[in-house]
């Protein structure tokens, strides 16, 4: 295990991130100080998964440690696709699913969000928590998420943006240095495409 590096290298910060999400009190303080956000908002969004009826299909991309699985309930009857470009992160997500007792509903999928191997209009809910800033081409990622979404479907999630003020510049720089952040567009600029 390394301190720095991309998601596929199983860096120490990936374990710390997962631990902070699991421990809301400490994680909430870290979220507020490091990201200027409320971790409770992430948990509120995750609850959308738990409100889906049996037979619904969820795409969780990048699944990472399996944050969105915390909304899934045992016996809910969902088709939950946990997708990530990193097999290491999928292993972590599957461990989370087993711990939560929902692994029978979870299908792991090694996939690039820029070229999802899913049919058009095949997903009821796309969950993308703290991932958009990690993608090398966020515009392409969102285009793919919309492509696989059924009419009336929902995209939910969270992301770090580059226009949140100078107070969060250290977190953005550290994310880039650690290999956790992709190509975020500076404030007032657009991604190509």
Written account of the structure:
The protein has 6 helices and 5 strands. With 193 residues, the chain is of the alpha/beta class. It has a single domain, classed as Vaccinia Virus protein VP39 (Rossmann fold). The protein has a 5-stranded parallel β-sheet with strand order 3-2-1-4-5. Helix 4 (87-100) links the parallel strand 2 and strand 3 (106-110). Helix 1 (12-22) packs across helix 2. The protein is globular, with a radius of gyration of 16 Å. The termini are far apart. Mean pLDDT is 81; it is low at 183-193.
Number of strands: 5
Spell the H/E element sequence: HHHEEHEEHEH
Main sheet makeup: 5 strands, parallel
Taking the alpha carbons of the first and last residues, their distance comes to 36 Å
Briefly note the CATH topology name: Rossmann fold
Number of domains: 1
Percent helix, as a range, is 25-40%
Strands of the widest sheet, in order across it, are 3-2-1-4-5
The Rg value, from CA coordinates, equals 16 Å
- Helix/strand-derived category reads alpha/beta
Number of helices: 6
Taking pLDDT < 50 over at least 5 consecutive residues as the criterion, the unreliable ranges are 183-193
In quaternary terms, these chains amount to: single chain
Report the average pLDDT across residues: 81
| CATH architecture tag | 3-Layer(aba) Sandwich
- The CATH H-level homologous superfamily: Vaccinia Virus protein VP39
**Proportion of beta-strand residues:** 15-25%
């Amino acid at each position: 295990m390394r301190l720095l590096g991309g998601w596929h290298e199983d860096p120490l910060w990936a374990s710390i991130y997962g631990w902070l999400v699991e421990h809301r009190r400490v994680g909430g303080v870290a979220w507020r100080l490091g990201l200027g956000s409320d971790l409770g908002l992430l948990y509120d969004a995750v609850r959308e998964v738990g409100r889906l009826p049996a037979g619904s299909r969820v795409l969780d991309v990048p699944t990472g440690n399996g944050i969105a699985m915390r909304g899934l309930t045992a016996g809910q009857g969902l088709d939950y696709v946990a997708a990530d470009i990193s097999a290491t992160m999928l292993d972590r997500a599957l461990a989370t699913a087993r711990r939560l007792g929902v692994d029978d509903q979870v299908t792991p999928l090694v996939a690039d969000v820029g070229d999802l191997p899913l049919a058009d209009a095949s997903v009821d809910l796309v969950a993308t928590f703290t991932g958009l800033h990690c993608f090398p081409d966020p515009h392409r990622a969102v285009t793919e998420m919309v492509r696989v979404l059924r009419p009336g479907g929902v995209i939910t999630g969270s992301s770090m943006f580059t226009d949140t003020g100078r107070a969060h510049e250290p977190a953005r720089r550290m994310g880039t240095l650690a290999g956790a952040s992709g190509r975020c567009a500076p404030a007032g600029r657009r991604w190509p495409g």
